[in-house]
Write a structure and sequence with these properties.
205 residues, alpha+beta, four-stranded antiparallel β-sheet, two-stranded parallel sheet, 7 helices, 45% helix, 13% strand, globular
Length: 205
């Protein structure tokens, strides 16, 4: 883009921020007396943040804003250092009010996606998420290995072991919504035999 182009872009964003702040201040001034000052401020701030994200052409989630370096297998290097099925608790994030967890950036993006889908009348549930190595061994024992016609990857190689794959509970409407919108949040349907299985791919540097 060049330095001049970058400077022009920054100037454009700054001018949009000023315009948006002015708009929000005007709306706040016209708010009815039945709205509390705190509620009005929160709504105004949220609207401004959303509008600013739109003006900058970025998504609102922090996870989507950061980019990562991937290794040869497509795993973020900072995650690969732990080992498949050995991700520490402090690198995992909770999915909604469930007991499911994913690598923190994936969990953040999934939570945003579920919330956005809900706002559009679409319900997305979750049935499986991160699997420790021991859990992978158990799943392979119960469901059989892919190489033998089953539904489980060899322990230590599962996408679930990186906290980057989730199995979702989707009706036909939700499945269609995911296929139309999943990639916006970093999720792709990558196992033909498993339409419920969605893999998270972060932005790369």
């Amino acid at each position: 883009m060049g330095i001049e182009g970058v400077n022009n872009r920054i100037a454009d964003i700054q001018s949009r921020m000023i315009a948006l702040q002015t708009q929000q201040a005007t709306k706040a001034a016209k708010a009815t007396n039945t709205s509390s000052a705190t509620g009005a401020t929160t709504a105004s701030g949220a609207s401004f943040a959303t509008a600013l994200a739109d003006a900058m052409g970025t998504q609102s989630t922090g996870a989507s804003a950061k980019s990562y370096t991937l290794n040869g297998k497509g795993i973020p290097t900072e995650l690969a250092a732990y080992g498949n099925g050995k991700i520490p608790a402090n690198a995992l994030g909770k999915v909604g009010n469930t007991n499911h967890k994913l690598w923190a950036p994936a969990a953040e993006s999934l939570n945003q996606m579920i919330a956005d889908a809900k706002a559009q009348g679409v319900t997305i549930g979750i049935t499986d998420s991160y699997r420790s190595y021991d859990e992978q061994v158990d799943v392979a024992r119960r469901k059989g290995l892919y190489s033998q016609g089953g539904l489980a990857a060899k322990p230590g190689t599962s996408e679930h072991g990186w906290g980057m794959a989730t199995d979702l509970d989707l009706n036909s409407k939700a499945q269609a919504w995911m296929r139309a919108n999943g990639e916006k949040y970093g999720f792709s349907e990558n196992v033909p035999r498993e339409p419920w299985h969605w893999e998270y791919k972060p932005k790369t540097t």
